[in-house]
Amino acid sequence: MTCVEATTRPASAHAGERAGTVPLALSGLLLIAVCYGLARFAYGLFVPVFRTEFALDAATVGAIASSSYVGYCVAIVASTAAAARWGARAVAVAAGLCAATGTGLIALAANTTVLTIGVVVAGSSTGLASPPLAQAIAHRVPAGRADRVQTVVNAGTGLGVLVSGPVALLLADTWRWAWAAFGLAALGVTVAVAVTVPRAIASRPVGGGTLPARPRAWRRRLGTARLLAAAVVLGAGSSAVWTFGRDVVSSAGASELVSTGSWIVLGAAGLLGALAGDAVARLGLARAWSAAMLLVAAATLALGLAASTTVAVFAGAAVFGGVYIALSGMLLLWGTRVFPDRPVLGVGAGFLLLALGQALGAPLLGLLADHLSLAGAFLAATALLVLGAAVRPRPEQR
């Protein structure tokens, strides 16, 4: 839909768009919650249990996490192409089914091999989820509200992490039932997605304008290198908390209640990431990005070096949860500004490199933890995140 079309459509058409926005935003939020918060990031919550159950060292824990991110990388490439060809609904439904399958395999895992396969399949669901939702929102939501809806949906990660914490606490001695519950939740959300997400094969430009018949190759887009570099650094630096966050707290002698409670706080604060769109509107993308990267670095440092202090643990978890989700929302908006005529490609490229950074960071930080200490690994992650604050969008994309 072009800007001219938007101004000449009748009021009833705009009312229809508004009415369709809420169900789409809600089902998108829930899909992100089950794919990211449960199927992908809940692995870090259960690392202490998996270490005991499958006799894993830190390097193996990191390698399994890395395999999940590799699965994500493959899935997001496939999803970006599939969403353009078969539409947003089909790919979003596939994401939900993938999350249900992966979490089910983890629940049934009898050995490390099956556990790894389950983690890979579950993690791949996130790669399938983001591009079709971005495409569906760009297709259905009026341009003036698209940024806010995109970041609200993206905050579903925080909701999923928030839900996974109490489940883990209640089912601490029967972790397989926790993962079975995650699988059932994914199936329920998949049904909602099938009903509310539009087919949306062709997406309109973000912010209006006409859709060019032949967009420039992504490699020639101004700002692409900065977008991808920022995504890699964020991914590598954040992998310390997502993979070893609960482990570092448990290793410091914290109780089950404190270590799991910090994860719940992380998820609850993640819901504030829905405000990323408003932060960008007020501060501009560049300033918001740099400030958020420094905050998430400080949170990572607090968790790594003060894990024996309950106040520092909860404060670090809260800041990390809220700011990381905001950063991923900013990355999403950044991608749509680099590729305004193909938002699904911009989101796919940014999130692909985010996962690649996590795939590289998790095993390397695991090796550092085994040969140095978990605190040393968190220190290295902090340094990366501080460097990432200097990678900013081009002036015209701020």
UniProtKB/TrEMBL annotation:
Residues 21-398 form the Major facilitator superfamily (MFS) profile domain. The keyword Mitochondrion does not apply. It comes from the Bacteria. The chain crosses the membrane at residues 24-46, 58-78, 90-110, 116-139, 151-171, 177-202, 223-245, 257-276, 288-307, 313-333, 345-366, 372-391. It is found in: Cell membrane. It holds the Pfam family MFS_4. Its main location: membrane. PROSITE patterns: MFS (PS50850). The keyword Coiled coil does not apply. Keywords: Cell membrane, Membrane, Transmembrane, Transmembrane helix. This is MFS transporter. It is a multi-pass membrane protein.
